[in-house]
Amino acid sequence: MTYRLLYSQASREQMRSLHPQIKPIIKTLIQKLRESPYLGKALEQKLSGYL
User: Is the pLDDT of residue 7 over 90?
Assistant: First the structure.
């Protein structure tokens, strides 16, 4: 199952301003998160209540 991602205006602007060599790396990582959103470490401290 692939999840749908919603981007804030600020994140879209940050993506546009990335160096061209970094953009494909970030896009690949985002695709991995779409496919399996529970990858990575659990959130801690202030963010611990979020999924």
Answer: no
Q: Kindly state whether residue 43 falls inside one of the protein's structural domains.
A: no
> DSSP string covering the chain, please?
--PPP---HHHHHHHHTS-TTTHHHHHHHHHHHHH-TT-SPPP-GGGTT--
Establish if 23 belongs to a structural domain: yes
Residue 51 lies in a domain: no
- Helix, strand or coil for residue 33? helix
Question: What is the DSSP code (8-state) at residue 40?
Answer: S
* Full residue range of the structural domain in which residue 18 is found: 1-36
User: How many domains would you assign to the chain?
Assistant: 1
User: Tens digit of pLDDT for each residue in 22-31?
Assistant: 999 999 998 9
